[in-house]
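TA notes. Do not distribute before section.
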Amino acid sequence: SPMHLFLFSMVVVVYTLAMAGNTAMVLLIWADARLHTPMYFLLSQLSFLDIFFTSVTVPKMIAGFLFGWTSISFVGCGAQMFFFMFLGAAECLLLALMAYDRYVAICNPLRYPSLMSHQTCLLMVAASWLGGSINASVQTALTLQFPYCGSRKIAHFFCEVPSLLRLACADTAAYEQVLFVTGVVVLLLPIAFITTSYALILAAVLGMHSVEGRQKALATCSSHLTVVNLFYGPLVYTYMLPASYHSPGQDDVVSIFYTVLTPMLNPVIYSLRNKEVTGAMKKVIGKCRVGRTA
């Protein structure tokens, strides 16, 4: 049908742009020595996570559109859910740590090299991956231990905890409370950390005498805040609001934001107002043109 074709085309285009944009960001930061700083190292890790995060769900969705492969094995469903929860939680934690990086850079610039050493950055990334893996292991194990009888048709385009719990043939109230607690740890605590960091940053920026320094700080922070809102907002709706607030149709629309749209928009948001990234891109494009003319 025309609608089927339109949706398929949109998913393919957005996924392709997300993969291309994030891959380009990783390669650009790796190739340009001027971008070998803690902020851009963390940004490259965010792009790296986005590449895998969107690839957990979208290729299966595309295969479903093309070949009608709408079924998935129980093991496959569990694997998809694990990696989705793992990468999603890791990204939540990494975004919070990126706010700390901005706080140190703006509020404590003299100690920035020592506080944000390369070893510290590696530990921050490792902590986000470890936190994501623990979250995913707990959530996946608890979700799959329920009996699933009757209809096994998931009213969603991938295996996500809320959609699976609707099919469980047992009382899930206790587990939903556990899910809420993990949501507080993975979502609300990082949001509180980010909010506190940016409140301190705002106070420091308002005290700056240099207009140029103030504009540069606000441009960098606004990019990160935009990404935070796009990613955390839909996740809070999905995992923190009671089941009575949800419907399968609404969940499908909301999940599109954090599975496809946000990974596509992240490289664009971070590069639009960033002179260092745009400068590095122009440098690479210039080299390509020189290579062709030679």
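Switch to the second chain here.
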Amino acid sequence: MNTTNKQKHVILLLLFTIIQGYPGLAVYTGTKFYVEGFSQTLRQEVCKFGIRVTCIQPGDVAVEDREKTHPDPQSKDLDTAYQAGKLLDPTDIANAVLYALSQPENVAINEVLVQNREFPL
């Protein structure tokens, strides 16, 4: 089978804590910083094989059972945004992935930060 025409692309989804750490989430945030560094190094190592590596960093996305993912009662800003409909829709993130995948072979979209313009990080 000839695989030369197949696209080779690694997509990594990183949460917004890569940009800013929060008290109580030190280990979690540290792992996100690790993945960012890993992706930068991986990108350099695999580009010679025609493989692209893209990090998609979504802001807060509207999901079912949101209170299970954000149980902190101090997250009033997030609650306000959730109630006002200012969280991202999962299709917004899917569109960012499709954008990265749809680029010509000579173009690499290395990082994409996706956030609601009315609720920036």
